[in-house]
Amino acid sequence: MKGFAPIAIVVAVLAAVPLIVHSNTTLNFLVVTLLIALAGQGWNILGGYGGQYSFGHAAFFGTGAYVTAILQVRYGVNAWPGFAAGIAAGALVGAVIGALTFRAGLRGSYFALVTLAFAEVLRIIASVAPITGAGVGTLIKLDLHASAFQFESRAVFYWVILALLAVSLVIARVIELTRFGAWLIAVRENEDAARALGVDAFKVKLGAMTISAAITAAAGCFYAQYFLFIDSGIAYGTRMSIEALLTPIIGGAGTVFGPLVGALVVKALGEAATTVAGDAPGLNLIVYGCVLVLVIAFAPRGLIGLVTGIQRRFARTRREVAHG
Amino acid sequence: MAEPLLAVTNLSRRFGGVLAVDGVSIAADEGRITGLIGPNGAGKTTLFGLISGFVAPNEGEIRYAGEPITRLATHERARRGIARTFQIVQPFAGLTVRENIVVGAHLRHRARADAVAAADVVGREVGLGGMLDRPADTLTVAGRKRLELARALATEPKLLLLDEVLAGLNPTEIREIVPVIRKLCARGITIMMIEHVMQAVMSLSEHIFVLAEGRIIAEGTPAQVAADRAVIEAYLGQGAAKKLGGQA
């Protein structure tokens, strides 16, 4: 299939990492990085390709995490169907928020603020509702069996999150190659012009938001299974909303690999800063802020955009030289 | 006579205290070029907005191909065959010329390969053949106007609303694009065009409506309209017709 080779290569290379690296700390770091990349890929579908900048993707991450956890803890549902239900619930929340905001015609910063508000409302509800464990949070019982979606080896968890990320990379690429994607990008570039060409902007945005929410919810489901504990701050906190939008913007919004590149850079810098300066609270946030400022100032199309831009400039110079 | 492809009856649109379009009735006959002229601020673009569904009317009816479409959404009208260009060009700036046209072509072609093939044909037809891989924001004004036209054409419209596609072009560029428009009409596309370049609109249109201050003040063949007292006064000011008459 055309255009899927880079995804296959990147996933194959990443899949080989646990064969070489055995350190649990490193694997843990990579699992968290891929988790953020997955959450970011969700944001990327709606924000990067569709131009709808959500500040509230924690709403989907948290819903995925809570549904997975609560179904197991309170209703005795097996983790695997629980995981699927978490993704479906996240998609549903995305569709509902999308229907309300897009029907109301919210664009730009209004859309961003309203999504942020939805995530905050969910966080506050989760912090008091008995079913979520309120302030105490929800703890999933340790049961290290594949049947319970828990694995003794970090490497297996790593491969699971890599597989989820691989699916999200393929989804992004498929979107690029289909009519839905062409229409979604057209809505990002100029919604009125798109409508004049027969694009049902509402339906396209709603579809993108549903897919976007499902992917970010999958990251939430995985989080619950990996850490076996969630509370309202982890699940619905602004931190997840910010990481989900930061990684694709830094890596390259509206590109297949943007969120992955962004997550690697952001997490590596955060780790490096902690190593150098110790565990100062809020240090990683300062690093995020600095990277974001630098990227927006010098590479508004993200790191991937920076690289392709340089390549293009070199190609042009070479052509001009060749033509004398 | 058969019902016109587009029939607008008694259409009005108010913006606050301003009646931008005031009881306008116009029609576009199938297979012809109909001109819509008038001084700045006459309400021409608002009228196009009403026909294409970007603006909702306060009163009146729009019929297209024998059916009322007054309350239909913009994209639904495009699906039925109404395409428009924008006076202020609206390219998808971040995309290439080809990708711009592909968006329009996707309306009739679901598969990407088909849409790309159709887009390339349309691109060559309007004279953008050599620029298909260029980013849309590197085009000149003339190029952008052609791109507007190409994108609209790619939706394979029955009715094409052209909003000042000649504005801002130099005489050479106008001479190049006029035959393109004429060819589209010959192919069976019904065209309604807003235009300020009088020479072009007079030579292209078979029927012309003149809009001033939201009302239709005259209609007829180009020659009839050019000789109309009300039209001359609308363009040149009150009393102008008399002065011109006196000189003659």
CATH superfamily of chain B: P-loop containing nucleotide triphosphate hydrolases
SSE ordering of chain A: HHHHHEHHHHEHHHHH
Question: Which fold does the CATH topology of chain B refer to?
Answer: Rossmann fold
- Provide the structure class of chain B: alpha/beta
Strand order of the largest sheet of chain A: 1-2
Largest sheet of chain B, in brief, is: 6 strands, mixed
> What's the β-strand tally of chain B?
10
Number of strands of chain A: 2
What does this entry show, briefly?
The complex is a heterodimer of chains A (324) and B (248). With 324 residues, chain A is an all-alpha fold.
Structural summary, described in words:
The complex is a heterodimer of chains A (324) and B (248). Chain A is mainly α and 324 residues long. Chain A has a single domain (5-322), classed as ABC transporter involved in vitamin B12 uptake, BtuC (Orthogonal Bundle). Chain A has 14 helices and 2 strands; from the N terminus they run αααααβααααβααααα. Chain A has helices at 5-20, 24-49, 58-75, 79-103, 108-126, 154-177, 179-189, 191-196, 201-227, 232-236, 238-251, 258-277, 283-298, 302-322; strands at 138-139, 229-230. In chain A, strands 1-2 form a two-stranded antiparallel ribbon. The longest helix of chain A is centred in the middle third of the chain and has 27 residues, at 201-227. Chain B has helices at 44-52, 74-80, 97-105, 112-125, 141-154, 171-186, 198-204, 222-226, 229-236, 240-247; strands at 6-15, 18-28, 33-37, 59-64, 67-68, 82-84, 159-163, 190-194, 207-212, 215-220. Chain B starts with 5 loop residues before the first strand and ends with a helix. Chain B is built from 10 helices and 10 strands. Chain B has one domain (6-247): 3-Layer(aba) Sandwich (Rossmann fold), CATH 3.40.50. Classes of the chains: A mainly alpha (324), B alpha/beta (248).
Sequence-ordered SSE layout with sheet pairings:
The complex is a heterodimer of chains A (324) and B (248).
Chain A: H1 5-20, H2 24-49, H3 58-75, H4 79-103, H5 108-126, E1 138-139, H6 154-177, H7 179-189, H8 191-196, H9 201-227, E2 229-230, H10 232-236, H11 238-251, H12 258-277, H13 283-298, H14 302-322
Antiparallel strand pairs in A: 1-2
Chain B: E1 6-15, E2 18-28, E3 33-37, H1 44-52, E4 59-64, E5 67-68, H2 74-80, E6 82-84, H3 97-105, H4 112-125, H5 141-154, E7 159-163, H6 171-186, E8 190-194, H7 198-204, E9 207-212, E10 215-220, H8 222-226, H9 229-236, H10 240-247
Parallel strand pairs in B: 3-8, 3-9, 6-7, 7-8
Antiparallel strand pairs in B: 1-2, 1-4, 4-5, 9-10
Helix pairs in contact in B: 3-4, 3-5, 4-5
